[in-house]
Amino acid sequence: MIDGRTHANKDIRRARLYDVRFAIAALFTAFGVIVTLTGVFSDEADLAKSQGINVSLWTGLGMLLLAGCFWIWLFVVPPDVPTGHSATDFEPLNLILRVRYHPIRGRNAGTS
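-> structure tokens emitted (112 positions)
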């Protein structure tokens, strides 16, 4: 038996997967790890090209820091879970109802 709470948790997890913050955080994490490892295993020739500064290491760590910010933001402020819509929430239907029925002039006010 699935209760409402389990169903709501599933919806929140599904909404997080499709949130743009998830995609950004995942990409920055993956590329941050790759660039950081490149910086960790760089040799003296690579350091000489950048005047002794390990650019790959610092860039990778910055990317991981940014990814961490996106992960925190994603879990602290969860995405809005869309709810089901009723027929009255459908915008074109509301427009038709407003044209067909005017509260002062009565029914079929839009037709002559």
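The chain has five helices and two strands.
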